[in-house]
Amino acid sequence: MKVLVSLCIFVPLLALATAEEEAILESILRDRSHIEETLRLAADEKAGDYAAALQKLRKIYHNSIRPMEQAYKYNELRQHEISAYPGRTLGDSATDGEITSKPMVLFLGPWSVGKSSMVNYLLGLQDTPYQLYTGAEPTTSEFTVIMHGEKIRTVEGIVMAADSSRSFSPLEKFGQNFLEKLVGIEMPHKLLERVTFVDTPGIIENRKQQERGYPFNDVCQWFIDRADLIFVVFDPTKLDVGLELEMLFRQLKGRESQIRIILNKADSLATQDLMRVYGALFWSLAPLINVTEPPRVYVSSFWPYDYAPDTSRDLFKREEISLLEDLNQVIENRLENKIAFIRQHGIRVRIHALLVDRYVQTFKEKMSFFSDPELVFQEIVDDPDKFYIFKSILAKTNVSKFDLPNRDAYRDFFGINPVSSFKQLSSQCSYTGSCLLEKIERAITHELPSLLGSINSSKNPTLSSCEATGCGEKPKNRYRRN
Questions:
Q1: pLDDT tens digit string along 403-460?
Q2: What is the largest CA-CA distance in the chain?
Q3: By the 8 A CB rule, do 479 and 342 touch?
Q4: Do residues 198 and 104 touch, judged by C-beta distance below 8 A?
Q5: What is the rounded CA–CA span in Å between residue 389 and residue 376?
């Protein structure tokens, strides 16, 4: 009887304690309404129009660009543009995976600066069984890809690499040790329908690369080459620059328009101290970012709990909304960026084919009955300027000299691909279709610009989207030259 009475008293007290804990938790959690408003998570998108445009883009790529890639083995010269392996068929879905992939947001930076907490905050995963593990010590040892799925589940790295419908198949080249450090998390989230997040292991300056068991810098480069937005996160106590961070910024060279510097945990400092830390951050990074226009720096505390008292709350919230607008701009422009990216890729493939054609033509002109083929071609490869290989391309075509590849790259390229294995462009024509050069030029000059124009003309921003992203400002497109 006493036990029963005790239970009757304890159970209501337990429920009361739980209710009080929830009330306290709600009082210290930050309001998330501005995230949904700025990112327009409640807005319905015309998925059919988006899918139709992607289908047109795939068709243009497979019909007009891919055949030239295969004929002149472009992917053996460059590896970073579109994943494709020699010998794959035109309908292979590994290439389609990258064309149809969502924008990728990459989180980089030292250990325990709040990268995982920031992902948890943006997706609202805090205090759920699915939140990324965080802590004051180095916690994230894997490359974690957070992506959309019909249900919440974890995908092992070996499964992600083996699935040809995804865009992660090329990661197999980094070995099994890396695939064990790669994990995917799928969940049905509105934001993940439009973007994919990648959380990376923190940089630890006192650890040698060999101790990771896989080529960390090479893996980072793979993700950097494919990222649409790169958040490099710091906190006020980790502003020192070591060898690994220097290497990271060298890898980011040329991608400055995608970089956003985040000074996280800003509410842990008084205003005066924060100003000094902000200056120290620029002083530390100045030698590493050698550009006239420095990357945008956001100063705030990106986690779910309320700002510390007596700090610049209004400033931190405005900075947070600015970052969300930046992210929303990448999401809104994802289709235009994809089309412009494929067009830029097609231009590079065309230039490569024109150069290979010129090498083949010069080799045939210099060959005679008594000539040694190896010696003749070696002379051409060693000194292409003597035979006007590159200058003739500039003179006869509308190619910019700034788009020409490195001359040394062709010495290596022809070292593994004999010149005799290539045909001239004039013979790359079929009886039923047009020539390869005509197809790719038509795609570059007419088909892709027309597709891009149709996307832009169909856009009709609503008032809410203008408030979020600013219709008065022209969004920057990293694939277009202004």
A1: 788 888 898 899 889 999 999 999 998 777 689 999 999 999 999 999 998 887 766 5
A2: 113
A3: no
A4: yes
A5: 14
Buried b (16+ CB within 10 A) or exposed e, 50-88: eeebbebbbebbbbbbbbbbbbbbbbebbeebbbbeeeb
Reading the block at residue 426, the tokens are 């004039």
Is 23 in a helix, a strand, or coil?
A: helix
Beta-carbon contacts of 424 under 8 Å, excluding residues fewer than 6 positions away, are 357, 360, 361
Q: 470: pLDDT confidence band, cut at 50, 70 and 90?
A: very low
Which residues, 6 or more positions from 57, have their beta carbon under 8 angstroms from its beta carbon?
Answer: 99, 338, 339, 342, 448, 451
| Cβ–Cβ under 8 Å, residues 199 and 111 | no
Please state whether 211 falls in left (phi above 0), alpha (psi between -120 and 50) or beta.
alpha
pLDDT band at residue 196 under the 50/70/90 scheme: very high
CB 53 within 8 A of CB 455: yes
Q: Which of 479, 477, 458, 461 is nearest to 469 (CA)?
A: 461
Tokens of residue 145, six digits: 């890809």
Residue range 163-175: mean pLDDT, rounded: 84
Residue 339 CB-half CA count within 13 A: 25
- Structure tokens that stand for 425 in this block: 């462009």
CA-closest candidate to residue 211, choices 235, 174, 165, 177: 177
In contact, 139 and 110? CB cutoff 8 Å: no
Q: Which residue has the tokens 């970052």?
A: 323
Find the DSSP H helices in 300-406: 313-332, 334-366, 373-382, 389-396
Helix axes 334-366, 448-458, angle to 10 degrees: 170
CA 206, 209, 211, 214 torsion: positive or negative?
A: positive
Q: Distance between CA 285 and CA 473 in Å, rounded?
A: 28
The neighbouring-strand residues paired with 262 are 233, 298
Question: What are the tens digits of pLDDT across the range 347-357?
Answer: 999 999 999 99
Q: What is the pTM (predicted TM-score) of this model? A: 0.77
